[in-house]
Design brief:
The complex is a heterodimer of chains A (854) and B (129). Chain A is of the alpha+beta class. Chain A is 39% helix and 21% strand. In chain A, strand 27 and strand 28 form a beta hairpin. Chain A is globular, with a radius of gyration of 32 Å. Chain A starts with a helix and ends with a helix. Helices cover 48% and strands 21% of the residues of chain B. Chain B has five helices and six strands; from the N terminus they run βαβαβαβαββα. Chain B has a five-stranded parallel β-sheet, sandwiched between helices.
């Protein structure tokens, strides 16, 4: 690629010094495109690592971040060079993001810019590092599963950090820990010292103010006259890999004004001797010891209890356990009281297998705020079951849904309000105590025990095991009817399927890429996904029970219990430190917030991720080159002007040497183009046969104009020119078409020197994607591969490369690209079914054969 | 087919490598032992001969190159597969000179290493015949 650049540069050497040498600007532009592509590919590859298919280590994460940082920095330098430092603000955003990434790489859980307090309505899984597992889970149970939850708010890790630093605890605590580790003091002494330091510390005024404000807001929403709050821990990783269940302190019946000091009490429980030793055993890193806190309005409880979605000691019985008693749940959770005990079948309709009703003389209730009292239970209620049958069934159903949602057996705390409604207080992973823990080596022979429906086909977009009934997506079906816990089987891994991600246990698609949107979402929600299986939609049947094992690329008929238990028991790879780290850094890299250049947020200071910076710069680079070409139109080395052609293609041509014959003041007629690769592309675009294929009556002119034309009256003003640009020389072409939100980029050098020849083609499909777009991507890949291109699919981006072919063959392929460019946009409309892929493939081959005769 | 299981030793100082690789290989029917300290692994290979050894190169203490050299000395028929995040031509060359079966650059896919291991296993089996 550099050789032709050098040739272009050579063309200008020795000539008159240009005021702004276009050759340098163009070299910058070229470089910016290269960097842009490198960055996007690196990001896509990094996300792909989350699928579980790769073995990677911390070193890889650091290396990738450093590479990205270097590339983005270089890109910012280049756009500023290109635009005479117009976008130096980009450095501010860049340094902020770079710093955030550096902090995350050091292992710190960083929640920059987060509020000290977040109401549950504003909490989502994305904020788990800010609000902790418990808050994220409970908010999600409310918003995604639509279960009743106690209203409340999260006191974030940002508040924790501010509290910690304001009181020098970030220095005091490690020092006490050091003394413990070097045996100067005992564990108990160390715990006591740290807890006292925390309890005596001053909560910064701003935090206290926000906490009281949020609590007041909750109180007002619920018109609670004397509200009581439950203040509980919501530490990071608490409900995940390392369950510190019951080890942290909770404050119940806290009056509004008592919340700030309850906060400190809960935080102090990070340093009980039990937790300190547990954490040491679990190999937790010091930076990960950070706590968010949940503050919830207490629900007046008629009855409360705990549900296990599996019997942890005897999971093979396929039953769920529920223990409950009258009043608040604390005595049930802590095992301080006798409880009613129910054993319920896991499988719907959830038959009650066992029911042991105990005598319940006392119940814990809230008598005004701050007063938790044991009260005598009315005589007639003492031997009555604390849960009604319908409530048991409803709870069982909820338990299964929670388990599907969180992918592991669940330990659920609930309360029944005085209105008999079930409120979920929390849900966390339940660890099964299997008599003989399942081992990986026991799984070697399952393939001989269970019928295999498919094996060895497809790629894992997310590794894991899922079992459930098949639900095949068809055109006449609505995703609204998708049942909880089913496995979604579809022809295409279309992003719209992400809508049922919270219900699906697994995804299978005939066609789909591991770097596409749905794959990303599947990884975020940890739903096993197998794509590119080719014929899953025809082999699998609606309603059929299957077990999907994406690591082994296998689909079994029926439920494979061994795999199921193994999966329930094993530590998920997603919970490993490296995966947590990669997910954290990717949040600063991957999300794209700047989408539409016409939106107000399309400015440097709104760039929040490396992707945002890259997107912004690409847009500005193309814009700048087009604008510059107006000012340099009269420069003797470069001719620039708009293409005059039969088709109103709004294309700015910039000739950097030998690409255009003669001088032209008012536009450049197509016949005068002497750039060989450009001519071939135009020939392809205007090939008569293409447009006749269209069953829809779209003539070429109106079609092209809808894509590319800008109003005639404004054409003289550089700002209003269309964003279609071709930089050409006699043997070179670089085209940037902007079609809607995305770009087609073609970069080609074709000469008699075979080794220097190359074609690069990049096509991206747009923001609103449907299965038709997926078909288009597939068609493009099929055609391009057929004509020897090396194709890569990154989501709906097609990248095709070709190198070192002789001139004649290179030109044939440029003609093909011309045909495809003219053709692809309307394909969205026409790709109504899979048969169209073959049909158009055939037609394009015919065009290629026909045009070859000419 | 022999009833004897193919034995594999994995050595990598990053625990995630063994954590991911061990169950995956066990599911395929291999007998797997994994280590994060090269000294422990070195002791183990002196006690027991493994069919296949998978090792990282850059580690604290005894590094991967020394380790694999020792493995080959103790039991030349052991097939060694090198996995490393710092792949250079020089290290690759040196490992091959020492009779390494294959060389994988991290990150790699579970499927990729499984394939290499299958090939190594096939080589061992054909040598036994």
């Amino acid at each position: 690629m550099n050789s032709f650049l050098q040739q272009i540069l050579q063309l200008f050497t020795g000539k008159e010094k240009a005021s702004v040498p276009f050759k340098i600007l163009f070299a910058d532009f070229k470089k910016s495109l290269e960097l842009n592509n490198q960055i996007l590919d690196l990001i896509a590859d990094a996300n792909d690592k989350l699928s579980g298919e790769y073995i990677f280590d911390e070193q890889y994460i650091k290396l990738t971040c450093h590479q990205l940082t270097d590339l983005v920095r270089e890109l910012i330098v280049i756009i500023n060079h290109l635009t005479k430092q117009s976008y130096s603000e980009l450095f501010t955003s860049f340094h902020r993001i770079e710093e955030e990434i550096a902090v995350i790489l050091q292992g710190e859980i960083f929640a920059p810019g987060t509020e000290f307090v977040l109401p549950y309505g504003a909490v989502s899984r994305n904020l788990v590092d800010a609000v902790g597992e418990k808050n994220a889970n409970i908010a999600e149970i409310g918003s995604l599963l639509n279960f009743r939850i106690p209203d409340g708010f999260a006191i974030t890790t940002a508040a924790f950090k501010a509290f910690w630093e304001a009181n020098n605890l970030d220095k005091k605590v490690p020092e006490i820990k050091r003394r413990w580790r070097s045996n100067e003091i005992t564990l108990e002494e160390a715990a006591d010292l740290i807890q006292k330091a925390i309890l005596h510390a001053q909560l910064p005024k701003a935090i206290e103010h926000e906490i009281l404000g949020a609590a007041t807001a909750v109180m007002e929403t619920h018109k609670a006259i004397s509200p009581c709050f439950a203040v509980r821990s919501s530490a990071l990783g608490e409900d995940g890999k390392a369950s510190f269940a019951g080890q942290y302190h909770s404050c119940l019946g806290v009056p509004l004004e008592g919340v700030p000091s309850a906060y400190k009490e809960v935080v102090a429980s990070l340093y009980t001797p039990e937790v300190m030793i547990y954490r040491q055993n679990m190999d937790y890193r010091a930076e990960e010891i950070i706590m968010a806190v949940a503050c919830q309005l207490m629900v007046p409880a008629k009855a409360s209890g705990v549900m296990y979605s599996y019997d942890p000691l005897r999971p093979e019985t396929e039953t769920m356990l529920i223990n409950s008693a009258w009043g608040l749940g604390e005595p049930v959770v802590s095992g301080k009281t006798a409880t009613d005990h129910f054993v319920i079948q896991r499988q719907s309709p959830h038959e009650v297998r066992e029911m042991q009703i105990v005598r319940k003389d006392q119940s814990l209730i809230l008598q005004g705020c701050g007063a938790l009292n044991n009260k005598s239970v009315r005589e007639e209620q003492r031997t009555e079951p604390s849960l009604k049958k319908q409530q048991l069934l409803a709870l069982a159903e909820m338990g299964i849904q929670l388990e599907k949602h969180f992918k592991k057996p669940q330990d659920v705390e609930f309360t029944i309000g005085h209105d008999e409604q079930i409120v979920i207080l929390q849900s966390r992973q339940l660890h099964l105590q299997l008599k003989r823990p399942p081992r990986a080596c026991d799984l070697t022979d399952i393939s001989s025990k269970y019928p295999i429906l498919m094996r060895g086909s497809g790629v894992a977009a997310m590794e894991g095991v899922a079992s459930g009934p098949v639900w095949i997506m068809r055109q006449d079906k609505s995703l609204r009817d998708f049942p909880m816990g089913a496995i979604l089987v579809a022809r295409y891994a279309s992003p719209q399927l992400a809508r049922v991600i919270h219900k699906a246990s697994g995804f299978i698609a005939d066609v789909g890429s591991t770097t596409g949107h749905l794959a990303t979402v599947a990884r975020e929600f940890r739903v096993p996904a197998l794509f590119n299986v080719e014929n899953a939609t025809s082999i699998l049947q609606n309603g059929q029970e299957i077990t999907l094992d994406t690591e082994c690329l296998t689909i079994y008929k029926g439920i494979v219990q061994e795999l199921h238990y193994y999966n329930l028991h094993e530590e998920s790879f997603e919970e490993m430190y490296e995966y947590r780290l990669l997910r954290r850094v990717l949040k600063k890299i991957e999300p794209l917030n700047l989408i539409d250049p016409n939106e107000e947020n399309f400015v440097p200071k709104e760039c929040k991720t490396y992707h945002d910076l890259t997107r912004f710069i690409h847009e500005k680079a193309v814009e700048t080159i087009i604008d510059l070409s107006f000012y340099h139109a009269h420069h003797r080395d470069t001719h620039a002007g708009k293409l005059i052609w039969d088709c109103p293609l709004d294309l700015m041509l910039i000739d950097v040497g030998g690409g255009i014959d003669g001088e032209h003041k008012k536009g450049i007629p197509a016949e005068q183009i002497s750039s060989i690769p450009m001519r071939e592309l135009l020939r392809g675009m205007s090939w008569p046969g293409i447009w006749d294929m269209t069953p829809v009556n779209v003539d070429f002119n109106s079609f092209m104009s809808s894509l590319t034309r800008t109003p005639q009256t404004r054409q003289t003003s550089p700002e209003n020119v269309g964003r279609n640009l071709a930089v050409i020389s006699d043997e070179y072409v670089n085209i940037n078409f902007r079609l809607g939100y995305h770009f087609t980029v073609i970069d080609a050098y074709v000469s008699d020197r075979m080794l220097d020849n190359h074609i690069y083609f990049r096509f991206s499909g747009g923001v609103t994607e449907t299965s038709r777009r997926a078909r288009r991507t597939r068609l493009l890949a099929k055609i391009l591969s057929h004509y020897d291109f090396l194709c890569e699919l990154h989501g709906d981006i097609v990248v095709a490369r070709l190198k070192r072919m002789d001139k004649k063959r290179m030109l044939r392929r440029l003609f093909l690209l011309g045909v495809l460019v003219g053709f692809t946009r309307q394909l969205d409309v026409k790709m109504i079914n899979d048969a169209k892929i073959e049909e158009y493939f055939k037609q394009i081959k015919e065009i290629m054969e026909k045009s070859n005769d000419n | 087919m022999t009833t004897e299981q193919t034995s594999i030793l994995i050595l990598d100082d990053e625990p995630i490598v063994s954590k991911r690789l061990k169950p995956s290989l066990e599911r395929k029917g291999y007998e797997v032992e994994s280590f994060t300290h090269s000294a422990d692994a070195l002791q183990r290979v002196q006690e027991k001969g493994f069919d296949i050894v998978v090792t990282d190169l850059k580690m604290e203490g005894v590094d991967g190159m020394q380790f694999l050299t020792r493995v080959k000395e103790l039991r030349p028929q052991t097939e060694v597969i090198v996995i490393t995040g710092f792949a250079t031509m020089a290290t690759a060359k040196e490992s091959f000179n020492k009779g390494v079966f294959d060389f994988l650059a991290k990150p790699f896919k579970l499927g990729e290493i499984a394939e290499v291991i299958e090939k190594a296993e096939a080589k061992i089996k054909s040598a036994q015949r």
